[in-house]
Records
---
Amino acid sequence: MSSLAGRFGYANRVAYSTTKWGLVGFTKTLSLELGPLGITANSIHPGAVDGPRIQAVFEGRARVSGRSVEEEIASAMDNQSIKRFVDPADIAALVLFLTGPRGRSISGQLFPIDGDSKAAS
């Protein structure tokens, strides 16, 4: 499980971004090494996942920026085509697909599930 940060990076979060980018290389290497054994490896890159964690992030941003939580959320939504947070059930469905029989020929791939985000914010 990577993150939007594994595709774009995040300002002021170098350690987090580095680990998420590292998972891309890890996934590609596992795919090459384990593919001959019929084992697949892919990375999933969620954006903002709906729930208490992302709400806390926006509350923190609002405190720092002086804007409202609603303004911070609107700003984040401006960055993506689908104007809602990622439902955790959608991530679970992607995992089940990739690990099931219909995903057996998919390996070494990066799967964004982020509402078509244009950058990390």
---
Amino acid sequence: MQVTIEKSELNGSIKAIASKSHAHRLFICAALSEQESKILCSETSEDIDATLDCLRALGAKITCDEEGFIIKPIWAELNANRTLKCRESGSTLRFMLPIVCALGGETKLYAEGRLPQRPLSPLYEQLQQHGCNLSEQGKMPLLCRGMLEYGKYVLPGNISSQFVTGLLFALPLLDGESELKLTGKIESLPYIEMTLQALKQAGIRIERCKQTFYIPGQQKYRAKRECRVEGDWSNAAFWLCAGALQGKGISCDNLYEDSLQGDKEIIPLLNRFGAKIEKFDCAYRVMPAKLHGIEIDAANIPDLVPILSVVACGAHGKTTIYHAERLRIKESDRLQTIYNVLRTLGADIEIKEDGFVIQGHGSLQGGIVQAYGDHRIAMMASIAACLCEQPVTICGAEAVNKSYPRFFSDMRILGAQWKGDA
């Protein structure tokens, strides 16, 4: 799918879509619970649908109405031999792998796109050391046999918070107490905090001492009868940043200040860039101002790096983004693809091992770019069009469906002029 976006001002108000990160966690807790529950979530994406399909494959009965989803847990019809299709969702694969190992039996997990090449180590080795037999990494399907054993688990804290989340879901189901120790610096800590919050709400007890988690075995999930998926700070960031770059301002509601989502950091970051920001209950309005370059530690906010790079181009002066090396193992090598797209559009950008140095000049040129099969690259290029003197054509723009299927519809609501088959 190809979309061409003309230079235009974006203004108005938009409602933040449901948080993909929050939805994954609530759906999994509900499916592992002992009682039926309802998740209030009016929309999904390809990644959320992947998790729902996998939970159905385990035996959960999931139906939907206008408000959300009714989840009947897996225990009534737990399937012993299972086929789980994770599509291109890294969260789905990394969350479900430890869970199916804890359930025992035999499971085939399929992944698509670049996901089979994205690493599962050191989670892979930890599962094998604790009673599971896994087929070779990188080849599909990934075949899992055996039953996960309780005991001591060790993971580096700077590889993937998704590995940690997967184990935190699985270990309470085992027969005895387990210990999960994270070594070194922990990155993407807010995502681990989100998992712990979801588990606590589902009645799971986990004790934490610094970087070690103590998880009693034989626990029962007891999800609330009804809970709501939060608005998504990660995707709302694209609109909030667009408001800082041009037009008369953009408001985004369904965003909660007390959320544990790490990407709510977009508000203080835009404030540091110099944008004007107003807060109303669960809404934020961002308006343009004279922006200046800043330094950004991206260790806990890797998903914000694409759109922050666009803001850096729209600012004046140097912006340095660092501790973003894990972007190389996302849907694309996101450091390289951010560089490729912004460089093509005329950015003064230098790529580093762990980030960028961007000399902002307030505008870009335009051009034809690839989305590289990456939803955040497609959305980044779309917002970058607001800075461009000439149109921006995005090839592979359907990548937005992974996390935000109505992205281009919402962009048109805000005043964008574009043509294509989105």
